[in-house]
Design a protein that fits this description.
mainly alpha
Length: 351
Amino acid sequence: MEIITHYGMIFIILSIMLCFYATWNTGANDVANAMGTAVGSGAIGVKKAIIIAIIFEALGALLAGSTVTDTLQNGLLHGAAFTAQPEWLVYGMLAALLATSSWLVLATAWGWPVSTTQAIVGAIAGFAFLTTGSHAVQWNQVGTILLAWLLTPMIGGLLAWLLMKIAPVVAWLGRGTTTRGEGETEKIFASLIVFAGAAMAFAHGANDVANGVAPMAAVIATVRSGGDVMRHDLPLWALAIGTLGIVTGLATYGYRIMETIGSKMTELTPIRGFCATLAAAITVLIASRMGLPVSTTHIAIASIFGAGVPRGTATLDFRVMSGIVTSWMVTLPTVAVLSALFFTLFRWLFS
């Protein structure tokens, strides 16, 4: 308790700075989840795509970001495990933010669209397990999240495949039966894909703002309550900080991953881009409504592949996909170890 009282303001300032940095990295790495397909299909330029993404990411984060944030803030760890030493929860949440940000910096520099959600969940659960013990983690909630990570990409990919089967038939009453008609259909979907991208940006903001806000909110609540580590409500201004971080990342560095998702995995036309983006947006919005911190990156990529399958597997670049899958596989253990190391560093600095 004395440590929290003595260093409380420092902890709050650190949490705000690290939240902003983590959400900046989220925006920089994950912008492609929302508008990458629109850019890759040639429907919209990068600058316009980023402007649209900024607007709808902010709306999603502010209007619908609290549900998933509550899951990460209050649902992953047992508060009772930190009652005797509440400063350990503070160290751990700061460490989780720093570990996630460090990993995302490397991933963004390498052009890897890794999952920020996977990183923060791994970092939070990792520090608690490696430093406090397995009793500190709510494994039933972790299991639910892992199951969602497995199922939601499948759902997104399947939905994209179904939309690809339906869309050319529906487009709109025989226009695709001639070369001219196919061109007119592509023009229609070139407009629609922008709306689908806006929906995906809203969904992404609603789900991924929690990645930075939840640990910050836990730190601030613990400090302001004088060491109470049990469940706390989420203030709106905390979502505002996370939103500012995301849109800043989008505006300053988001174009790098957009290239990977939007153009390197498979050739995207407006129809395929629309189907992939709409499928991903629907999947992420449903998960957000359920409070599940899913990987928008996983879902977006699976949806792109689902939309490309009807053209044949020869059109898909599985080398890019294998590199992405490898990055996912190393994310969880990497951030868990990093988080535990940073936890040890913070404990040493403030003890």
